[in-house]
Design a protein that fits this description.
CATH class of the largest domain: Mainly Beta
Shape: globular
Structural class: alpha+beta
Helix content: 25-40%
CATH superfamily of the largest domain: putative xylanase like domain
Number of helices: 10
CATH topology of the largest domain: putative xylanase like fold
Strand content: 15-25%
CATH architecture of the largest domain: Roll
Length: 281
Amino acid sequence: MTRIIVLILSFLSFTISVGQNISCSPKDAAAFSKKVTEINRLNTTAKFGDKLTAIGKTFVGIPYVAKTLEVGEKEALVVNLHGLDCTTFIENVLAFALIDRADSTDFYSFTNTLEKIRYRDGKLNGYGSRLHYFTEWISNNESKGLVKNITHNIGGRTVQKDINFMGTHRNLYPFLTDDDNYTTILKTEAELKENEFCVLAQEDLVGNEHLLQTGDIIALATSINGLDVTHTGIAIREKDGRIHLLHASTGSMEVEITKLPLADYLKNIKSNIGIIVARPL
C-alpha cells in the first residue's frame, strides 16, 4: 500500500478531482502512510482529547521549520509531515485525529480534512482564504463544529485590539507582493478589527489550570502590536499533575513537551499576556 501511495503522489503537486492543487512530496506521502500505521496502533477506546494528544506525541522530534506553507507561485494545500511550525503541527494532528475517528484514513480524506481546518469556511480560495490569524482560526473552526472556544468558561476576560500585523508588515510575507493577496488580507483585518476575543490572563492560569484537559488547543496571546497570537500547542497533563505544552518549539527547534508546566513556561515569554483555549469536539 505504501508503494502505491508513493507512486500516486510521486510528483510534488497534483490536482484532485475537484480541481484543488495539492503540494506533497514523495517523502511526505511515505510519511503519511507511516503515520496512519502508527495511529492504528494507538488505544482505540481513548477519549478524543487523549487520542489527539497521543497522535501529537508521535510527532515528537520532528524538526520545527517555519513558512512551510509558502511554496510555489500560488496557494496550494501543502502536506508537509517532516517539518512543522506551531500551527501546521496543530492542523496535522487534528486532521489525523478526525479521520481516525471517522475510520476513514485514506489520503484524500486527510487532505479534505486538512483543507477544512486550514481555510476559511473549509475552502481553499487563494492565499487570503488561509486562516492566518489564530483567533480567526479558532472562530472559523468553531463555526464548522470542530472546536469550541472555552476561554470565557475558564475565567478568560475580553480583549480588544487591532489585528493588522500582516498588513503593516507586508515585506515579511512573500505572497503579499501580489496586490490581490494584499487587498484580501487588508479586508480580513478590517473585519477582525470589529471582533473581540477572550484571554485567560497569565496570572489567572494556575488558579484555573484544573479546568484544562489533555487535548485542549492552547494559543499564546500576545501584547505585540497587530498580533493576536504568537504560538500554539496542545495541553497535556503530565505525571506531575500539571498541564504542560506539546508543541513545535522554536527553542529546541523540534516537536517536544515542555519541561516546565505551562504556567511557568509562559513566565519566560516577555510579550505573553495569557492563553486562548479551544477544545476539539
